[in-house]
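Quick note —
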Amino acid sequence: MLYEFRGYLLPQHRKISFPVDGNYHWKDGTGFTTDMSVNVTDSVIKIKCTTSRIASDADVNQLRFRALGSVRAMTGAAAFITGLGITPVLTTLIHPGGVEVPLDFKYPGLENLVTAFNTNADSFTELCLMIGNDLRLLFVFNDLIESIAEPLQAVVNCGRVLEGVRLIMSPAGTSKSEQWRIMQEKLNIARSYRELVTDQSTGPRHADRTGVTDQTFQTSLERTWTIMNRYLLFRKRGEAPLTAPEFDLLT
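Predicted structure written out below.
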């Protein structure tokens, strides 16, 4: 089956071209294999993907991950050689038969986990001011949003988000274990619920990405979004602990 991705490089005004096409072979334990050919001309990305089967929804997620990885291999090489920050953006997936699907940096369901704020003008303004007036929270949000905008770093960023929330919530001088206890108690979160995210980030943070799957990737995102929502509710309520029955223990 032939799938194709389209996109562009930032900064677009550079009109970057690579001297050769990149060719990459990907496979996983399910038997889903992909041969990719990557062409970049005048900052326009064209990726052809020949797969071993028609892609399921899960395969499409994996295919997008592989396409981004393939083009990042080339942009990484070019950025290292030139000292120029180069960012690939994939905008379109063309399915076999020619059906084009626009690509967003969006993971279905995350929006349903947010109850602390909405896009109403007053609510949105309150969140903007909360983030903008707290440098530590600004950095945490940067990590949070990069976890969906930069999926190759998602599990690392999710772990770092929770580390950031832990530090914000804890008095200076407390031990790390006590900081986790304070965060979990005040947000009513079981240690095991939080540890799935932080443990999953440990290996990739040290360059070991074995064990990271599409499912664990999605779970890390969902739990990080949920915990962040709880933290924002905690802030909105004057930092009063979130307790049952209004806030069930997250397990």
